[in-house]
Amino acid sequence: MSSKKRAGAHRPLPPGWRWVRLGDSSIATIIMGQSPPGSTYTKDPVGLPFYQGAADFGELYPTPSVWCNAPIRIAEPGDVLLSVRAPVGPTNIANERCCIGRGLAAIRPGNLLLTYYLLVVLRHLEDKLASRGSGSTFGAIGREHIKAIIFPLPPLPDQRAIVARLEAQMAEVQRLRAAAERQLEAINALPGALLNEVFGEFEPPMDSE
């Protein structure tokens, strides 16, 4: 049975969708990271931001703490950064040109694939990617693991609709989270406020000598 049949046997795709493999050069380009010599690293913002792994990842974009003045492997804005060494699976999006070390791979979408749709796919597959890396001594996946990823590819308008819907849902989640945090702050402040209301400016007497 072909990989296409195995992947889609129990869930037929909508019209216009198809199963694709990430290793297909018409879908994406995979750039495996390579760490430059340590002598080229700097804490000063000189050269390109250098990301060695997921430690610098944020919710969506990484934040640099190290720069490199002689980069070897470079990710471009819009590339999806995938952590390939412990931990395997976390993702971010490169929001500027940057140098990537061996703990990362950069996946550059082709004309048929949107960056944010690819990010959604890889985050959906994060646990599976992590399990593939668990078989190695240090917890890692290689180029062949990434090339073997199979996922459903909708037409571009459908990709945009999916991303827009998820962005709206995430915005609502963030709103609810912020509201919950404000409520928690109010709850934590409540005991002190009640004591002040009961005792006012009352101060206990000093111990007698």
How much strand?
15-25%
- Give a quick account of the main beta sheet: strands, pairing sense, barrel closure: 5 strands, mixed
Q: Which residues sit in consecutive blocks of at least 5 with pLDDT less than 50? A: 1-9
Cα distance spanning the termini: 91 Å
Number of helices: 5
| Shape assignment | globular
Structural class call reads alpha+beta
Radius of gyration over C-alpha positions, nearest whole angstrom: 24 Å
Number of beta-strand segments: 11
Write the SSE topology.
Blueprint: H1 3-8, E1 18-21, E2 28-32, E3 41-42, E4 48-51, E5 67-68, E6 74-75, E7 80-83, E8 91-93, E9 98-100, E10 104-109, H2 115-124, H3 126-133, H4 143-147, E11 150-153, H5 156-199
Parallel strand pairs: 4-9
Antiparallel strand pairs: 1-11, 2-10, 3-5, 4-5, 6-9, 7-8, 7-10
Describe the 3D structure.
The protein has helices at 3-8, 115-124, 126-133, 143-147, 156-199; strands at residues 18-21, 28-32, 41-42, 48-51, 67-68, 74-75, 80-83, 91-93, 98-100, 104-109, 150-153. The longest helix has 44 residues, at 156-199. β7 and β8 (91-93) form a beta hairpin. It is globular and about 80 Å long. By secondary structure, the chain is α+β, with helices and mostly antiparallel strands.
